[in-house]
Amino acid sequence: MVRLTDEFTKTSCRITTSYYQSNNKVIIMKKSFFNQHSPAFRSTASRIPALALTIFSLFITLSLSAQISEIPPVEPIDSLEEKKDKDIEISIPGSFVKGRLKTSWLGLTLGINGFASGGALNLPSELDDFELRYSKSTEWTINLIKQRFDLYKKNVYLEYGPDIVFNIYRFENSTTLVPGQEEVTVVNESVRFSKNRLRITSLSFPVLFDFHTKKGKHGHKFRFGAGAYGNIVLAAMQGQNSKDAEKTRTRDDFNLNKFNYGLMARVGLGPITLFSKYGLTTFFKENEGPNLTPFTFGIVLIGDHQ
Questions:
Q1: Is the dihedral of CA 191, 250, 297, 122 positive or negative?
Q2: Best CA proximity match to 93, nearest among 112, 107, 110
Q3: How far apart (Å, rounded) are the C-alpha atoms in residues 146 and 303?
Q4: Residue 27: per-residue pLDDT
Q5: Are 127 and 105 in contact (CB under 8 A)?
Q6: Kind of pairing, strands 248-251 and 259-269?
Q7: Please, is 186 exposed, middle or buried when counting C-beta atoms within 10 Å of its C-beta (0-12, 13-18, 19+)?
Q8: DSSP assignment string, 71-87
Q9: CA 122: distance to chain centroid?
Q10: Is 62 helix (H, G, I), strand (E, B) or coil?
Q11: Is the separation of the CB atoms in 59 and 26 below 8 Å?
Q12: What is the pLDDT of residue 272?
């Protein structure tokens, strides 16, 4: 037990405050003899708030010290080998594993779009209006959420999850799609456009079987995936810019195949993953437009490469 005394005396006022510290508790005892009407008392009373603040601070400090002393020691982190047997484990930022199911979200891929006709990548002359500038025809895909289920000993997985897909088809020529037509109608403008592109936003549902090898000497796995996807077109717009005319934005369905599907493949090693997609349905509705098949190839920018 520790006893501390704070004592001050004036002509007609004497206050003695004792602090007893025992078992992390503070006991305060005061003895005072004063004349409440004396000037000395009024001078002394002005010092009481500061004294009360000191006592309160001392009480908080001792209380926190008592609580900290009761916190159990931190256990050491388990080794990586021991973590393998846990039901839930954190892998990379933005993903988690529970049992045989791994969930991740907010991935990003970048691809290059193109058209094929009759299985050939070079379009026939009658389809020159749909010739694309490949360097400007891109696909951006945001992986909203992905789930990967371990089918066999972390070597075979089933992967699925919805995506938002933004496709841009940059026309090489001054092609204008006429909206509101029963069939695809194209006008080749005399104006030379600095930008002439068709933008399509879709909701996609890919499903893949993913095959992983064991880690090599550098700690990387070789991965190969194959599967299919289905798209629902949400919106379409053609935008045109030129020096001689104002910017135009035309929104229409342009006889697009709103429900389309195709095959996709993916191959990767370490942090690098490449992908490709090839449509099994035509770009435009059947019997309403030219026979064009969309394809895309690209790279995974942000995603789970494990």
A1: negative
A2: 107
A3: 10
A4: 45
A5: no
A6: unpaired
A7: middle
A8: SPPPPPPPPHHHHTT-S
A9: 38
A10: helix
A11: yes
A12: 92
pLDDT for residue 47: 52
Amino acid at 283: F
* Residue 8: alpha-carbon gap to chain centroid: 65
First to last CA, the chain: 61
What is the per-residue pLDDT for 177? 96
pLDDT given at position 210: 94
Residue with token string 């002393």 = 69
Chunked mean pLDDT (size 10), the chain, 306 residues = 45 46 47 47 49 56 49 49 44 69 90 94 91 96 92 92 97 94 91 93 97 82 94 97 88 96 95 95 95 96 74
Q: Could you say which DSSP state residue 153 is in?
A: T
Query: From CA 156, how far away is CA 13, in angstroms rounded?
Result: 87
- Asked if 266 and 233 touch (Cβ cutoff 8 Å), the reply is no
Number of neighbouring beta carbons within 10 Å of residue 254: 24
Mind giving me the DSSP string for 114-140? EEEBTTBSSPPGGGGGG-B-GGG-EEE
Are 196 and 249 spatial neighbours (Cβ–Cβ below 8 Å)? Answer: no
In the numeric block, the tokens 């934005």 are attached to 249
- Residue 15's pLDDT is 46
Q: Sign (positive/negative) of CA torsion 219, 80, 153, 143?
A: negative
Phi, psi of 198 (to 5 degrees): -105, 120
- Pair type for strands 25-34 and 13-22: antiparallel
Domain regions of the chain by residue span: 2-69, 96-302
CATH code for the domain defined by 96-302 = 2.40.160
Q: Tell me the C-alpha distance between 13 and 102, whole Å.
A: 75
Residue position matching structure tokens 């035509």: 282
